[in-house]
User: What shape does this take?
Amino acid sequence: MPSTPVCETSEPDRELLLETIVYDLLWSVFHVGTFATVLNGCTRTDADSTLRPWRHLLSDNNKIMQLALRYATEIGLTEQDTAKMAKLYNDIAAEKLRLAPLVECSMGRTGADRQQLVAAATSWRRLAKEAKSILLAFADLVVRRLGDLLAEDARTLLQFLDEAAAGSDRRVGPSGEISLPVLKQMRHQPRMKIEGRCTVLVADKSVAAALKDVSVRGLGIICDRALPEKESITLVLEDGRQLKGKVASRRGDLVGLLFDSRLSYNDPLFRRTTGHASHARARTAV
Assistant: This one.
């Protein structure tokens, strides 16, 4: 008989688990705000809105996150907050299942369709209030342990959820288009911590800097010299490799660089991240 695979028994990386849970929470409440807002638009008497463009958001990751939440108290979350988050994921999964048959509804809805849309809008507005309550509970933790970008995203999402829960359809245009808030960080493109030195070449200058974090779209660096935003730069790594991009943001000494071309997830930079080995252990443990 084949041997049974042995899971690693090492402790999961708490910081990485915290980041995973928070990233997923932000992404999930973004779904809630989007569906609530679109449904607010769909229920207008003159609505030409449809859920069809948003069917890709109906994917359900409830079971995965319920497993991750088993470790929530180990990474500093209270049992009460963990229970609330588990309930939110269950509620989102149930409402997505109920919403699926209405995705194809558009112009020419029957009276029964409209009644179902009104009921769905009420449910998603309730979810928006529930999501806001949970996100508020995370606000201090996000600021203290995960940095300004995620904290800024949390504030943006709180406003979005407020609007959606109040029944606002101001983001929905006359043809059903929706203007969504722009987030600085998204769950499917998280930044991972990285260490090392680098050099920034901009115009005729050569500026020393330190690596801070990396995603497929860009790098965070620490640099005490002025770098003009939106200007093209070349980043030279310690091994001589060069990456082209632009300065996208600056907060004090923290500079965000946006690559001209996205990195592959197999890029050598990701093998240098401080959470790389722990990430594999965390996935095994979860």
